[in-house]
User: Fold this.
Amino acid sequence: VWHKSLPEWFAAEANTDNAKDIIVQHIEAVAGRYKGKLHSWDVLNEVVKPVHQRPDGLRNTPWMELLGTDHIALAFNTAKRVDPDTPLYYSEFGVEMNTPEHQARRQVLLRLLKQWRQDGLPVDGLTIHGHTNASQAADFSPSVFTNFLNQVGDLGYTVMISEVDVSDRGIMGDYAARDTAVAAMYEA
Assistant:
């Protein structure tokens, strides 16, 4: 379940009366087709967005407009029902850097993960997208990121890095200098 890449018909046809069915039917079709064949499922993607100024720190999305936060439990509970033996993950980006925006995202995400654990939501882990730029190396703190990952683990979640890329945009010099900067960021 994601707020992007929705089908063209979604905006015209989805409403508060059928949004639950849309989520359930989608998960039943996809997870049902691949039941037991995958390592894990990324069930829900990118719901944290503190700059949207919601009191809970979540993103304003079509799903949020139609179902509120109920779409979160609906997605995970449906996936668990359809493919009960495959681990279920929540997927998020923007938590690896040590900037105010990333700090806020980590705080909201930790609160969300704690709440899910308390509510008994069938979430096994967190997948993280790491989209960084070597020119921002000064904004990365390995100890801050490691501490966050440990906090997630302490809540009983598995952590996987599902996407990682480091751009050399903004790095001056020849290819060797840019490659060195990118390699240093990956190593950090």
Observations:
- The beta strands are 41-45, 88-93, 125-133, 158-167.
- The mean pLDDT is 97.
- DSSP finds seven helices and four strands in the chain.
